[in-house]
User: What shape does this take?
Amino acid sequence: MQIYIINLYINSLFLLIVLKPLIIKNIQTEILRWFRAEKRDFLWRGQKDAYKIWLSEIILQQTRVAQGMPYYLKFISAFPDVEALAKASEQEVLKLWQGLGYYSRARNLHTAAKDIVENYNASFPEEFEELKKLKGVGNYTAAAIASISYNKPVAVLDGNVYRVLSRLYEDEIPINENGAEKHYSILANSLLDKKNPGDFNEAMMELGAMICTPQNPKCEECPINRFCKAKENNLTEILPIKLKKLKVRTRYLHYLFIHDAKNLILKKREAGDIWQGLYDFPLEENEGGKVKIFQSLDLDLTTLKKNNLKKITHKLTHQTLEISFYKIELKSIREQIKGDYIFVPFTKLKDYPLPKPIENFLKDFAVL
Assistant: This one.
């Protein structure tokens, strides 16, 4: 396998050496011409403000534009600049992020904002390597900020760009193989228009999102189809190659919705697991899906069958959550429940960031 990858790598470099003086300038011209005529109208497009570029890129990681746009607007309204974001509490940030998923992004966003204020005088660093020092900012986000905000000649590399490059060069190196990022980064930077790096980076991402799509790419509409080796050899449905995903793990979560007439109990989730920093109900988890006793509350669930309100399946990237909800109504939860719990009035629930399944459950029962 290693020899195979080395040979592919050498072939790609050969293609670059041969093609660069002949067609790369034409490819750059055609992609930019297409982009300037066909680009979608996003609120952050045309912006040079590093804060807004950074915020949009973090929100859109693993999130569709249609889903991310309202969150971008909410964050800009609540925190118009990096200083406002840095001053916010983690709970405020997580609450605003609620429903978007991958909550580590929100925590990293908050940490980076405080770093920028404390160590960079509230101004984003301009250099790619310096940007990468910020929490949650990897090669892709650093390249986007550096090129779009500061016109630095650094190519971005996201899923859309991987796909365009793999098909353009008929590159068979799996895009999630070890070493693939370095390999495709060489291709991306060799193709980059150094005079217009920000526009070109956006154009490559837009091309992958609108034309060079994962399934049924619109090859006849592609501005660089005459240069595309995958189209020439009928390989667009095969490339890019991606190794099989990790096995999905199933978890069984049993939640107790405990309340009295005015309050319910929540608990803040700790580090080292999903939904860190968010609030959920008292929880028991096991591997088999059956539970008899809530040890932390000394409650026998065999007596609660009539109160088994709901069962749902909630899918995450590498986990499937089988969730059961149970209801217990008490006269006074403050007197009857002991332990490390928070007693929250129903009227104050809006202040607490909740995992999506908990939020949906409470909405179903007209609590939120």
In short: The chain has a mean pLDDT of 87. The chain has 14 helices and nine strands. Residues 165 and 357 are 38 Å apart (CA to CA).
